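Hi R.,

Here's the chain you asked about this morning:
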Amino acid sequence: MTDIRIERMMICEKIYNKLVRDKISEIIAANNQSCKTEILTEERFAEMLDKKLVEECGEYQADKSVEELADILEVYMR
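And the predicted structure, written out as tokens:
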């Protein structure tokens, strides 16, 4: 009987649709991975910034950490 092996390769793609900071795309590239980015219009940037602020406030409400407060301030200062 012949031993037949089937190899499956799954390509996982994660879609985040989030603002990125701290040169995240360069860090991803340095790890031999790739990502797609886009430059937003001012209007779209404001929308995404609002979503980010809501996200960070939720994280702060969940654990009340100083780090989350700092993240809220960082979003506010943009």
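The chain has a mean pLDDT of 83.

Let me know if you need anything else.
M.
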